[in-house]
Amino acid sequence: MLVGVVFVALTAAVALGVALPAVAGFPVIGVNGVPKIVARALPAVVSITARRIERDQFNKSLPKAGLGSGVILDRRGHILTNNHVVEGFEEFKITLPDGRTFRGTLVGGDFFTDLAVLKIEGKDLRPVRLGDSSTLAIGETVIAIGSPLWIEGGPTVTVGVISGKRRSMEEADEPDQPMLHDLLQTDAAINPGNSGGPLLNLRGEVIGINTAIMPSAHGIGFAIPINNAKPVVKTLLAHGQIVRPSMGVTAVSVTPQLAFTNDLKVESGALVVRVEKDGPAAAVGMQPDDIIIAVGSDVVEDLHHFHELLFRRQPGETVQVTVWRNGETLRLLPVLVRDR
Hints:
By secondary structure, the protein is mostly beta strands.
């Protein structure tokens, strides 16, 4: 579990990594060939300027803007980015590296995975190939491309390595931020504005979507694995949204470290931090500091596992949830509702 994470909608550092095996029909380019990879991928990386109009107490218009990055998925103009780049905004200006600009429309977004799809209408669009993030190795060289900090002159390119895998971001004190799991960690420094930009392997394939940084550390950034993004994109393209069930709780993973520091008697599960008023969990008496230890007959390992078990259900379904409270085991039967 990682805390103190900042999402970077407003990527970069340098290191060398291990060589990769060649794939039939798609050769690996060594680190000395990075310029060739960039030249091939750069036309697919876009800058996203988001805008909305707010009103002050005197009804005066106050424009609000945000900046992010994205990657072109296909020649029809679909663009993958982070949900936090587009959420709450009404208008989107998409700028390509060749200087062309387009008005973007939102196909759909998913708060839980922090992914969204935009669409533009244009010709001669050059998508980039999506790779297989499951094959990534620790220390493998990766390339980050994005549009940080409103710097003029096109996207910024940087090189780093995969520093870790299966990281989690759990910000219980930030309900407006998603809790992300199974993330890639990279030492490619990610800056505001790079959210939604691609992380590439040395085959020139997208293997991650750059998403967040840990500001209290140096060289710790996070990307969503592209294998996790693929089914989300498929559903958003088909339906424009993803319907998920909710129990109306905010929780964090119980780990041996958390159990030791808080003198807990269990070392796994999901610790309830907040219970939504009038939500399903509140209706059956769930309380903060309860530890969810099972959903149905499945033992809960951590928050990620709890979400996986929950998402196998549907809104409207009654589910048995076992919680540990002050040395007692309680079985509750909340009726799930549709998540936001």
